[in-house]
Amino acid sequence: MKQISLKINDQELRAKPGMTILDVAREAGIEIPTLCFHEELSRVGACRLCVVEVVGGKKLFPACTTPVTDGMEVLTHSERINARRKALLELYLSDHPADCLACEKCGNCRLQDYAYAYGVRTSPEDGERSQRQLDESNPFFIRDMEKCILCGQCVRMCGEIVGAHAIDFTHRGFQAQVAAAYEMPLQESSCVFCGNCVAVCPVGALIPRSRVGQGRTWEFKTVTTTCTYCGVGCVLNLHVKGDRLVDVSPGNGPANRGKLCVKGRFGLDFIHHPERLTKPLIKKDGRFVESTWDEALDFTARRLSEIKHAHGSDALGVFASAKCTNEENYLLQKFARAVLGTNNVDHCARLCHASTVVGLAKAFGSGAMTNSIPEVTLADTILVTGSNTTEAHPVIGYLIKQAVAQGKKLIVIDPRRIELAELADVHLQLLPGTNVALLNGLAHVIIAEGLADEEYIASRTEGFDKLKEALAKYTPEYVQKLTSVPADLIRKAARLYGKADRGAIYYSMGITQHSQGTDNVLAVANLAMLTGNVGREGTGVNPLRGQNNVQGACDMGALPNVFPGYQSVTKPDLRAKFTEAWGIDLPEKPGLTITEMIPASLSGDIKALYICAENPMVSDPDINHVRKALENLEFLVVQDIFLTETAQLADVVLPGTTFAEKDGTFTSTERRVQRVRKAISPRGESRPDWQIICELARRMGCKMEYQDPSAIMDEISSLTPSYGGIDYVRIDKEGLCWPCPTKTHPGTPCLHAQGFTRGLGKFTPVEAIGPAELPDDEYPLILSTGRNLYHFHTGSMSRRSEGLDWRIPEGYVEINPATAKDLAIKNGDMVRVTSRRGEIEIKARVTSVVPEGIIFIPFHFAESAANILTNPALDPVAKIPEFKACAARIEKLESLEEVG
Amino acid sequence: MSCSVCLCDIELSDEDKSTLDDILAQYPCQESSLIPVLQETQGQLGYLPRPAMEYVAKALKVPFARVYGVASFYSQFHLQPRGKHIIRVCQGTACHVRGAKEILKAFEDELGVAAGNTTEDLEYTLEVVACIGACGLAPTVMIDDETYGRLTPRDVRKLLRQTKKAAKAQ
User: Which partner for A247 in A27, A239, A556, B7 could form a disulfide, CB atoms 3.0-4.6 Å apart?
Assistant: First the structure.
């Protein structure tokens, strides 16, 4: 490409064609003021502050939109320009309150900075000023439209990046303002309260409420860390004053690049919630009594030792945690194996992606997302199946929406008409639990129409002939009968995906949480290999992991059959390696999964559980059964930050800390190992979980001593080949994607590029079976469960966030208008939902998001817990329960007035 | 309308829906269809009711906030119901010099609404305009498509009585 030579302020510079004056100046470190410019947003040239002089040109040019040309000579700070900028700033200030003394933005305001830089001392006294009401209608941020300078960054952020399109310019001239349609409150618009508008606002028009009155920007300490909510792995900045979190802002991580969702941005106030556990609790005569750490730890160590000696190691079990750090999960599984002497260690990945780990390991040799998050927008066709991405992984949702806006194709497979379905080129609205049939149908069409990548199949895979044979019967017409998806749509979707140069699949619990979950995953893998869509940028099979560190907890061996790095406990050489490193003999027999430890607790085979930061009393299927099982234990110790529904059943409760109070690492869904940094000290007497585990181990006669989490990571990397090159120094600035085997390895964003981890990719034919429980006369509806944008998992954090709770204070059941009409149920009515496991009372939300005959309940709400109803039927291989489909019925509750 | 989207959640009468469907059928599903679609919608419905704008937004896949932004930007679009008759009182330079303010006041007093508003019975909408290009007749007003010139406040009352009478006769 031809280079362009130009001069800026006598500095000789080179540039690529297409660059603007501003691009070149920024690259050279020459500062040009801007108010409306943002790297990621379209360039509108609206604020005019970036005007520069081009020698030989009569008028001034906006640097942000003027492309450079060969031989151009630019002046950025001539007298003429400075005078123009000063005049512009005076104009801005003529309709801007001179409120700097009390303004929250003071010290971090671009208008203030530029006024200082260009010597604008006062704003004119005369002239009309906009009079606008302060908008305090939501608990997340305040909108002070008198301070708005109409730069439009918020409008573009909302539309171009987040894809919410909640706000725009309304009216014109002096009346122009940024608002939602009809100036309605944002909660009535399509706003998702992600706060990314707040993050780009250059002035004090958008202010987070949490920081109002808390102090000046320069008084805050800023700590960069990784979000504790979902698995996307957004980097964020915690702003702290006086050991209190006062504000959160997006960081520049590879996955989020300056964006967050509502939970990361505004949902972290649970950290300071008064219900935080601050002292250990011991249950005495059925009531919790506060105790000292020594008493609680001694008691716990003694009880665990007693039960171990009386009933053997396998009478004990550990629930590790996808919320805790890698270091803590490593210690938890080490504690189970080396201290307790059992492989009974598992965590909630069993409930979300166990089938992924098993299925993808079988097909590819590695059970994780094949590609990295920034690659979303590189795909030509994106297939989203069983993932409500915009609610469960919002920041990845933004990227998918951006791809669609760029003209990329989108296929959505989901029983519900989720937000992405509205944007999709094809929406395949299948019956819950018929995924294998549908995916096989797509594969059938791809083969029948000659869209399979034969070269790829021949050179990189095995088992194709058997697959082809098995797929023969899955014609679109046959599949239509099984799934209720029209045959024509199946063909259309198959062609879109089959013809794409880069086809990427994103899936989540709609695939995995079935009694046929592993088969679903294998069917997805088949489809991707069939079209050569594994091993290249912008393609892949991408399971979106739910929890912040569910990937890491799996990687760390918090699973009953593997040591860290998926090294099998049954392989003598690997066991020998860990035996030598830990200095103790290790059990050989694979342990029980979470979904097996619960029934084993009821049957009495398991006598004691150590549950660390998990809440099976809300998260596991058939909660009534879980309660009976936990109550049957001889000893239950729960370590958590709140007295969760599970902790209430414990004999001992140990107060751990949140992510903001400790150091460590999380591994995000894209396999990126990122730093977690301590921003505030532990609340009360709570302790970082890793210290508690070490203390327990010491009291049980096993030396587990580390100076800090960094030292634990050093031990992890010495024993885990895929983490071999990872240490705190290397990931200080930016995290690395595993496999990263050596200290010089750059990490691996895209897996299987040079061949699959297992060698050849393996096709496995799978047959459609369908859900374990089908609707019948008694239970005529299909119940599916899932998430809501404003809450997370069992709600123990998000429901203690003031803003998130304001937005969605209670559970609800989605029901189609036609189904509702048949049952005389109106929007907002209280209803009873019943399944073979139990019943709940919950508010009805009548909406066409769900089709007729299907109801949907988010599982975050303990008082109307979806999991009282769900079916604990397990996938035979992965032991994951069928959360996504069970039979249920629904009836209207008589209201009090009607009865009275 | 080539966009396939579900419009079932919008509260709009079947009659208005079919009117909008007929209009939308004439235009491709793209943002540039927005202004002509809004113009025709207003032509048919008299103004732009909120559900109609939501319907157009969804059908054309243009964000509702953008549709509102466009509709509120142009003075040709009306977000409130309008009267059967539109009275435009010129406030241009020539009319101003010849007493347009008194003319406007006479209309406001007679109709009981301020400029920019519509009478409760939805008969009249009173507007001010900058110039209607009939300066020789100043001060002027337009009632629907008829122009009246060289008016006095007394003429205004007469004019309104005449129009009301004519409307009754119809």
Answer: A239
Task: Establish how many alpha carbons lie within 13 A of residue A324's alpha carbon, considering only the half-sphere containing its beta carbon.
Answer: 35
Cα A595 to Cα A867: distance, rounded to the nearest angstrom: 14
Given CB atoms, is A425 within the 8 Å cutoff of chain B? no
Instruction: Tell whether A169 lies on the interface with B, counting CB pairs under 8 A.
Output: yes
Distance of CA A636 to the CA centre of its chain: 30
Mutation to test the B interface, candidates A150, A165, A190, most B Cβ within 10 Å:
A165
Mean of per-residue pLDDT scores for chain B: 89
CB A684 within 8 A of CB A655: yes
Residue A442 exposed, middle or buried by CB count within 10 Å (0-12, 13-18, 19+): buried
Low-confidence spans in chain A with pLDDT less than 50: 898-900
For A181, the closest chain B residue by CA position comes to B65
Residue A881 C-alpha from the chain's centroid: 21
Expressed as residue numbers, the domain containing B136 is 85-169
Secondary structure of A197-214 as H, E, C letters? HHHHCCCCCEEEHHHCCC
Instruction: Please answer yes or no on whether B6 and A166 come within 8 Å at the CB atom.
Output: no
The answer to whether residues B47 and B78 touch, using CB atoms and an 8 Å cutoff, is yes
pTM of the model: 0.93
3 state SS of A136: coil
* Residue A767 near residue A470 (C-beta atoms within 8 A): yes
Q: Which residues of A touch B49 (CB under 8 A)?
A: none
Domains of chain A: 4-77 (3.10.20.740), 128-272 (3.30.70.20), 281-352+549-627+657-720 (3.40.50.740), 370-543 (3.40.228.10), 781-899 (2.40.40.20)
Do B137 and B68 lie in one domain? The reply is no
- Where does the pLDDT of residue B28 fall: very low under 50, low under 70, confident under 90, or very high at 90 and above? very high
Partners of A168 in beta bridges: A179
Number of domains in chain B: 2
| Chain-chain contact of A159 with B69 (C-beta, under 8 angstroms) | no
Strands A11-15 and A4-8: antiparallel
Report CA-CA distances (Å) from A6 to A12, A14, B17, B134.
6, 6, 58, 56
- Average pLDDT, whole number, for chain A? 95
Residue A662: φ, ψ to 5°: -150, 165
A827 inside 8 A of chain B by CB: no
Distances (CA, A) of A691 to A27, A327, A328, A331: 46, 11, 9, 10
Give me the residue label for tokens 């700070």. A77
Cβ-Cβ contacts under 8 Å, B69 against chain A: 168-170, 181
**Scanning every residue of chain A, which has its alpha carbon at the shortest distance from the alpha carbon of B68?**
A181
* In a shared domain, residues B115 and B159: yes
Does B9 contact A848 at a Cβ distance shorter than 8 Å?
Answer: yes
For the stretch B36-58, pLDDT in tens is 999 999 999 989 999 999 999 99
Structure token pair of residue A390: 């915009």
- Interface contact flag, A170 B66, Cβ < 8 Å: no
> In this structure, what DSSP letter does residue A373 have?
G
Interchain pair A171, B8: CB under 8 A: no
- Chain B residue numbers with beta carbons less than 8 Å from the beta carbon of A852 are none
The tokens for A734 are 């930016």
Q: Does any domain span residue B117?
A: yes
- With contacts defined as CB-CB under 8 Å, which chain A residues touch B67? 181
pLDDT of residue A899: 46
Q: Which two tokens stand for residue A555?
A: 């990687």
Report the CATH number that the domain containing residue B163 is assigned in CATH. 3.40.30.10
Q: What is the DSSP string of A413-430?
A: E-SS--HHHHH-SEEE-P
A477 shares contact with chain B (CB less than 8 Å): no
- Residue A900: per-residue pLDDT: 39
Residues in A closer than 8 angstroms to B80, CB to CB, are none
CB contact under 8 A, A165 and B63: yes
Token pair recorded at residue A236: 């964020």
For the residues B131-150, what does the mean pLDDT come to?
91
